[in-house]
Amino acid sequence: MPVFTSRYPSVPVPKTGIIQTLFEAVEQNKNVDRVCYVDALTGKELTFKHIKDMTYRFGAGLQDICGFQRGDVLAIYAPNAVDYAVPVFGTLVAGGIISPANPLYTKEELAHQLRETKAKIIIAHPMNVETAFEAADIVGLDKTKVFVFGDNVVKGAEPYTKKLLGNRVAEPADFQSPEQARETIAFLCFSSGTTGKSKGVMTTHGNLVSNIFQYSAMEHEALYKKETARILGILPFFHIFGLTVVLHAPLYMQRPVYVLPRFELEQFCATVQNYRITFSCVVPPVLLQLAKSPTVDKYDLSSLDALLSGAAPLDADLAAEAQKRLGNVKIKQAYGLTETTPAACVQAGDHIVPGSSGLLCPSMYAKVVNEDGKELGVGERGELWLKGPNIMKGYLNRPQETAYCIDTEGFFHTGDVAIIDENGHIFIVDRIKELIKYKGFQVAPAELEGILLKHKDVLDCAVIGVYDREQVTEIPRAYIVTKPGVEQNEKTTEIIKKFVAEKVITYKRIQSVVYREQIPKSATGKILRNVLRKEVKEEEEA
Ligand code: ATP
Ligand code: MG
Questions:
Q1: ipTM (interface predicted TM)
Q2: Atom 15 of ligand 1, residue of closest alpha carbon
Q3: Contact 62, 88 (CB under 8 A)
Q4: From the alpha carbon of 190, which atom of ligand 1 is closest?
Q5: 199 CB less than 6 Å from ligand 1?
Q6: Ligand nearest to C-alpha 193
Q7: pLDDT surpasses 60 at 273
Q8: In which band, very low, low, confident or very high, does the pLDDT at 197 lie, cut at 50, 70 and 90?
Q9: Is the distance from CB of 395 to CB of 201 less than 8 angstroms?
Q10: CA torsion angle for 35, 37, 42, 44 (degrees, to 10)?
Q11: In the chain, fewer beta carbons within 10 Å around the N or the C end?
């Protein structure tokens, strides 16, 4: 049976590292005076020259002041900041590895990441210093190894701008061959932990440069063709989606990124309006708010050309609703994983099929495989396997799990269920682990959530399987956040159940409804079904 290949021409094999590739692109195009990053809250701008100067000095500072060696790890524990790229690129210049952490992590969660990566230095946001100290203490890292963003000493932690910018400039670590670029680790991002404990993913220079090439080949239209393209940076830079696609790719394209620390609807709209933003990567909950919140009408968002959603399933009708609401801004979807650095497929150009996650990125191969390991064809549903230059080197400290998910042919087994149509459009159905088994039939929560969101009384929702003793099977249960003014009673429940029942085959019907104030979600908009499952388990045990 077929191996699906990308419809796009292959991208070049990276010959060198991230710094050389990015910086050469800017210098060759004589764009060194261009603004790369803007603090959307204060208007502070950093040009490429600033970035290069600070980055090279940071690299020298790490080596001279901290004795940082090739392969050493630096952790960043902060929300997005205009100068987030400085410790990132500076560490790469020094030949090191960056492990970006979620700024909302608790001390235990951060300690887990520090321990796994053996980080030698932490750069933290001022708000995070206390927790950084506590986590450092847990793993036995000296407090003097914690530095802060900004210009002031915070609770005894020195600002990196005062302490780590050396007086000389370092030469970026050299890459002797494409093999070396392919093998040398640049990042240790952690997967979102949606299906279990978060895993450290070894991303090489070759992986990241390849994905920049792959992504920019597909997003050429949105990012590059337009000289006035302005990109909004709200996706968290600690997660691979924001890291590759928002922090790195626009620099390679020499287009400015307007950085916000987090998503907040009013701020998002104001930034788009004030800076005439043309493009942003988003996650489905952002589109949910853009489609439904009255706030949107107060702003002029007409500068937007397109929004690209990823990290979690985007319902086709929700995309259409948001598109209509925003005056025909193109709403597109992409799919990927931390393990694929991340872009694996993207809706681009004129090849947009509603509900799909687009076409396979250049230089990638895919298989759809059933439970018995049989390779399936067009229109058939099975696990998606992917191969390409952007597939991670492996999981950190977990050789067995790496061997389990990357096979001897180099295909990475994604754990997601997909269908590929006759033109190569990839539809992600759901995760294998999230599928509900109702009496042997498979029910995808994402499908039911898409339907529920269409109901006029539903503001947000999540679906999981819960065990029903009487029927001796898992059944679909919906957690629902109602719109203001809607009564949460038996009548509403029946109306909602009927609404779904009219649209799906019998075994997919919602059999239980629970009302909630909000749905637990990760920083990248993933529904945390494990949190809901844990609640159910605790209730059962109580
Ligand atoms: P963990 O592996 O730790 O359990 P995670 O898989 O959620 O967490 P990430 O690497 O951040 O961590 O996310 C990758 C997953 O996100 C994919 O396997 C897929 O399930 C989901 N995903 C990403 N983009 C899409 C999309 N466009 N449609 C549907 N699902 C998506
Ligand atoms: Mg995963």
A1: 0.99
A2: 337
A3: no
A4: 3
A5: yes
A6: 1
A7: yes
A8: confident
A9: yes
A10: -40
A11: C
